[in-house]
Please model this.
Amino acid sequence: MSLVLPLFAPRDLDAPLVWCGGQAVSAALLLGQAEALAERLPPAGRAVNLCHDRHRFALGLVAALRRGHTSLMPPNALPATLAALHEAGAPPPYALVDDAALDTGGLPAVFVEPDTAAASQHAVPVVAADFEAVRLLTSGSTGTPRPHAKRWGSLVGNIAAEAARLAEFTQRQGLQGLNIVATVPAQHSYGLESSVLLALLGGASFDGGRPFYPADIAAALQRIPAPRALVTTPFHLKALLRSGVTLPRLELVLSATAPLSPQLASEAEAATGAKLIEIYGCTEAGQVAARRTTDGEVWTALGALRLWREVDAAADSTERFVVQGGHVAEATPLADLLDLLDERRFRLLGRANDLIHVAGKRSSLTQLDFQLNRIPGVADGAFWMPEEPDDGVVRPIALVVSDTLDAEAVRRALRQLIEPAFVPRRILMVPALPREGTGKLTAQGLARFARDALEAGPRYVVAPDHPAFAGHFPGHPVLPGVALLVYVMRALAATPALATRLGARPQFAQAKFLAPVGPGALLEVKLEPQGETSVAFEVRRVAGDRSHLVASGRLAASVACTEAAP
Model:
């Protein structure tokens, strides 16, 4: 007879498990609601849980378990992704939704709604330890999405190890009574483990929503009683702290998906009174290690996990790091390079597949991103390695979001933090990066965004209070042509590979002004090399998905202006 494990960790079944708009739903009531939903599910199949609301997501997860159905967690809810979930010989997929208008790509849909007439249930069901409870699909941040089966016994062990470590960090006997607000989707492995499962299997409770904006996060935290915990990502946490919203006192802030800087961790602890804990893990192995960031850079493995280094002599002595033990039954390679202090403690060096080499130096994109996002004034940023060389050498490009810094200020700051070989010649200031709901950047999404940004050229907003408007002209402000050319020079300075062609004193060989530019205009500057000592430019006024040419011309090396047209 196979081993069975309970659906819930030991807890008071009449105590809150979920908070919905400030109202409590007990564990016993959720069980009753899930039983009612299970009766509406197909007799056979696999559940694709697309519920945005975390309460309804949990109902769908528990109902699928009661029906003996595996829950599929796709990387997104695009119709094409959902339509591709059919597998030959596998039970047919169906969608669990809380949005009746959602396009499910042809999958049959079951609308998830809590049954208000359901009776509380106090008998805790059990699930076979070897049952495939969840099948996660990777987000694609390191390549093509692949499925990863999570058996119930592994999930139970994983959450038990996490809960024990978090209780240790917060000096609690357990997580009972701890109320969680999470900004991460429940379909993501981290969001699933550290919100819904940390309640079901770790004894905590969770808020049923999924707030995204800082004001919504603060409001969700205010609605639930203390002690409170926030489960988030570095990207979301940074936005929250920079927003200036007032936060209630927290006991715990949990972060994952990317390394967090000690400065941001200290700021978070000061703003919330909480201990900030980072989780390191991956889809393949689940949660692997944790650290309190303000205590230092060393990570310690969870539970009975052990790590070691392997060298593949057949693959040019390639090294990899492996984890096993506890909830990781088989030796599982990690995607990162580690500095192992012993079999349980390590420093994180970066992803093994994002190592880059420039001018004989080696670094990782993860480490460069970490340093970039440490710069005061950088709201978000990422490095990208293009495939095409720049002057014969492939060099990294930085994409930066900032309201207060320009490209040159970012470059000066990076010179203090990273080796000169990795300081980018090209820094693109962009309004936002294409992050997923988890705050992660996929490799494909970043590459596509970077290519589009390079093709579009840098953009600038003409300040409504630009000093040139005061006398040019009163009542009908128009940006003078000479002020417009300042933006061309800024774009040239942000593109050192082109600026080098023109020397220290580039001059305008030709300039034509074709349309007026007023206050608040969004300008896009495109530069195109012409020969060895000349660069053509276009300035376009952008409105939505359209642009209009307002100026064009040519820059040359030490050539006096020969043509000008008003």
Observations:
- The domain at 359-456 is CATH 3.30.300.30 (GMP Synthetase; Chain A, domain 3).
- The chain has three domains: 4-348, 359-456, 460-557.
- Residues 232 and 255 are 5 Å apart (CA to CA).
